[in-house]
């Protein structure tokens, strides 16, 4: 309990004195141990109903391992929620390069609007989507060939099996006949098929096999036509030639044929007048006050999704969901907790600002604050460290010593600028410091190479201490993430128009550390 765990710290100095107890407490308060998550399998089973999932096309040919895993798992869940709610429109908040959006549209035939604040992301997503369509068509064609090949292999297996059975039966008949002939009990001709009748059995078997092949092929062609239809819907209307209208036929058309051609022509024109692409990348900055109608002109009943929405965007996604009657469901996986704005962090009175944390009334009433250091810790990946993917201790040490140099040499304690990924580009600690100073727009002539190395040697013996400190932060990370996620869940529980809400572990945390989704469905009566 709390009293036992509190003894991990010294009552007077408040310093950590029992690391083992500290680790046990952290594990006790992690999401995996608290029992507040709903298993993904249970959610999918509850949403399934009578619908059947789409044929399994994996996105691993189009994305890296991590992204493929995330997109495949999340898209299946999103499609299940959309089917359950009877909606076809999905809005992907913070869509980035459009991995999830394009897969939802192509694989599940959903109409997806991907909204991102970066125009370069949006433009990149648009270009990537165009290229993806070409690969997708080839992918579908290869899938068809594989199914045909499998069908032929199955048919050949059945043919061989029949021939073996037929041969076995004939051998048994001949054995019996030979036995009976020796006894002169019956006439052989009455029992053994003549050579002519034996040969007649083979064409029947072949005919039967061909019929099975035709049936199997038709079944696969039916499935194929559905996939091709779904894929063609993604393409622009003029990407596929309409052979019926271009085919030249000199004979007189019947009235029925004229009507059919007229209808086909009208449909073609309708397709060309409307953009047939089911994925629309849009550029816009989303806030809690965003009116989606201003961005999406044909907004209808839909659901919001977000795959690793950064900072306040995850919180704002939930606020938009609860406020807009058209949005029937939400599935949001947040990330970048260190970018969250906190209402009680600086103790500044900003009554009009919408904060990323806290969201629920309970923590607001408590005036709860995490602080940037705690939120930074929440971004660490305990599961990856547990399987041997250790923390980048050397780069963290470089950054810590740099901080000392900046404070002591330049007198700077706070800056809005960031060093970024300078470590990976640096050949040495001296190179790292000089690159960083330039990024921070500080005069690097103020410090010599020997001075830089003096700082390095002064703190080098404390590198193990730094590593131990960061390992404690890693152990504590799941507890801080719990606080942020439960705050969002409690916010949804406080709303009156929510039929169900929950936390669901979607991803393998080693592949994707930010693996928890906040999911909610509105009451059916809400409109």
From TrEMBL:
The residue stretches assigned to a coiled coil in this entry are none
| Alphabetical list of InterPro entries matching this protein | Methyltranfer_dom, METTL25, SAM-dependent_MTases_sf
Q: Which Gene3D superfamilies match?
A: Vaccinia Virus protein VP39 (3.40.50.150)
Domain Methyltransferase: residue ranges: 66-157, 249-343
What is the protein's name according to its record?
Answer: MET25 protein
Origin species: Zosterops hypoxanthus
